[in-house]
Structures are given as structure tokens and as C-alpha cells.
Specification:
Blueprint (H helix, E strand, L loop, with lengths): L5 H17 L1 H5 L4 E7 L2 E8 L2 E8 L7 E7 L9 H6 L2 H4 L5 E5 L5 H9 L4 E6 L2 H9 L9 E5 L2 H7 L5 E6 L15 H10 E12 L5 H9 L4 E6 L4 E7 L6 H15 L12 E4 L7
Parallel strand pairs: 5-6, 5-8, 6-7, 8-9
Antiparallel strand pairs: 1-2, 2-3, 3-4, 9-11, 10-11, 10-12
């Protein structure tokens, strides 16, 4: 797609203006807590400080488990402040023009909003488990489903199980409890078999998988059992983004060239090409299928 396509430019201009308008109330609000709601033993909260919104998920029965799910810069809403979300955008190296993608673990909707803006003709199916998180994303972070971007409240596994085989070009999985751990039922061999069955030929799974646990390499084994090519990209802090596909590995030079071409096309408002230097091809021992 020509980056100077007049139709694309006009749509993105209008889309950004609409996003800014939805965020005007938050930009004009005092620095304070803008949203709170209890859910499943947790407190979902949105705070504003110095033109920055943060979405928190706080376990009310434990100490020191508050977890920032999303950050939004109100003066630059298409910037991705959290490093792992920038890294996840490397998925476009393998699938530069996806027709349909799946996004789960909505948070404030920042990743989905950015994908919706730049991939202006792609269909996006979003799934989020927590209703208060959905309310916060729509009410505070400017997330707005439309005819191209749907939203379902529910479990990611159930949503994928209900989808037709070979539905998606990319699966974006960002699934965490507030303690920084991925739910166990979403890191099993059965789950990754399901993911593989829902991807079109050459499709890609990208997953934010916490890097704190000592057995991280073992966590890659069920992924490698279903995807011959597995890469990781270390974010800042305790995050590790995984990319998995049936396609053969790509040479380092070609990865960089593709990333440069994508950045030239989209002119992302966040670092993009430098993340390629953090990509590492993994060769975990796969579990039996």
C-alpha cells in the first residue's frame, strides 16, 4: 500500500482527530483517580498524572501486587509507552498486510488502537476478560470499537475455540494476572495447538510472556511443538515477547530490511526498527505433539 495513498491519509487524519476528541475530557481533568471498579477480588483503577493515564489492576487480598496494565500519553495517543507493546509490533515483519488479527488482553486498548489506526483496512477482533477493564478502556482511554474492530468480553481460550479454523493472520496475546504471571491454561500444549489451528498458512502468534520465571525456556517448549520458527524479544524490565510461526527462519539482515520498510510505510510514533536488534531465534526442545 502506497504510504501516500490519499484515502489512507484522509482516514487516518479523521481517525486521529476522533481519538483526540474522545480523550479531551481526560486531558482537561485534574490529576486524580478517574475510574475505579471492583472485579473478582481486584480493583481496576485509572489514574491521571501529568497528562499520563495509567490503568491498574490491584489484588485487594495481597500486598504489593498492583500492576500497571496500560499507559497512555494524552498528548500523543498513538505512542506506545510500554516497551513490550512496541516490540509486539514487530509481528508486521512476518505479516505486513494482515487481513484479520486477534487481540486479547485489551488493557486500555492502546495496542489495538494503534493497530486499528495504522492497519487501516485490517479487521481486528478484541477479547478482554474483565468488564471493568473494558469500561475503563472505552470510558478513559479512547478505545472505540467500530465496523472494523470488534470487542468481546470473555476468556481468550473460549473465544479462539469458537472462531473458525484458519481465521487469523496474527494472534496478539497479552494475558497477565496482576502478579505478572500468565494464566496456566493459556500456556499449555492444548492452547498453542488451538492457536496454531486458528492461524492461516504463514500466520504468526506473538505473545507477551513474563520473563521472571526461571523456567522460561521450558515455557517455550509447547510453543515450539506447534511452530517451527520461534523468536524472542526482550522488553525493558520483566517482559519477553515471543514470535512463533510455521514459516522458515528469516536472516537477520532481512529482518532489519523488512522493519525499515514497515517503518517507512507507517511512520510509527514510537521506536520500531531498533527492536529488531533484540530479536533472538530460539531453538527450544519441543514437547511431543
Amino acid at each position: 500500500m502506497n504510504p501516500q495513498d490519499p484515502q489512507k491519509i484522509a482516514w487516518q487524519y479523521a481517525n486521529r482527530a476522533a481519538l483526540v476528541a474522545r480523550l479531551e475530557f481526560a486531558l482537561n481533568a485534574d490529576d486524580e483517580t478517574l475510574f475505579t471498579e471492583e472485579w473478582n477480588g481486584h480493583l481496576v483503577a485509572v489514574t491521571k498524572e501529568k497528562n499520563t493515564l495509567r490503568l491498574w489492576l490491584i489484588d485487594q487480598s495481597a500486598n504489593d501486587t498492583d500492576w500497571v496494565q496500560s499507559i497512555l500519553h494524552l498528548t500523543d495517543p498513538l505512542f506506545l509507552p510500554m516497551s513490550y507493546t512496541q516490540a509486539m509490533m514487530l509481528a508486521l515483519i512476518w505479516q505486513p498486510q494482515p487481513e484479520r488479527i486477534f487481540v486479547t488482553g485489551l488493557g486500555g486498548g492502546g495496542l489495538a488502537t494503534v493497530l486499528h489506526h495504522y492497519l487501516w483496512q485490517t479487521r481486528i477482533d478484541c477479547v478482554e476478560l474483565s468488564p471493568p477493564v473494558v469500561a475503563a478502556a472505552i470510558g478513559c482511554f479512547g478505545f472505540a470499537p467500530d465496523e472494523r474492530m470488534s470487542l468481546t468480553t470473555g476468556d481468550a481460550l473460549e473465544a479462539l475455540a469458537q472462531a473458525a479454523p484458519r481465521s487469523y493472520d496474527i494472534l496478539f496475546l497479552d494475558l497477565f494476572f496482576d502478579n505478572g504471571e500468565t494464566p496456566e491454561h493459556l500456556v499449555t500444549d492444548d492452547f498453542f495447538r488451538l492457536c496454531q489451528s486458528r492461524l492461516r498458512p504463514g500466520g504468526l502468534l506473538t505473545m507477551n510472556l513474563g520473563a521472571k520465571m526461571p523456567d522460561f525456556s521450558q515455557r517455550l517448549a509447547p510453543i515450539a511443538a506447534h511452530f517451527p520458527s520461534v523468536y524472542t524479544c526482550r522488553g525493558h524490565g520483566s517482559t519477553q515477547v515471543v514470535f512463533a510461526t510455521e514459516r522458515p527462519p528469516i536472516a537477520s539482515f532481512a529482518l532489519t530490511q523488512q522493519a525499515m520498510a514497515i517503518q517507512q510505510e507507517h511512520s510509527f510514533a514510537f521506536p520500531y526498527v531498533p527492536w529488531v536488534s533484540r530479536l533472538i531465534q530460539q531453538r527450544p526442545t519441543p514437547e511431543p505433539v
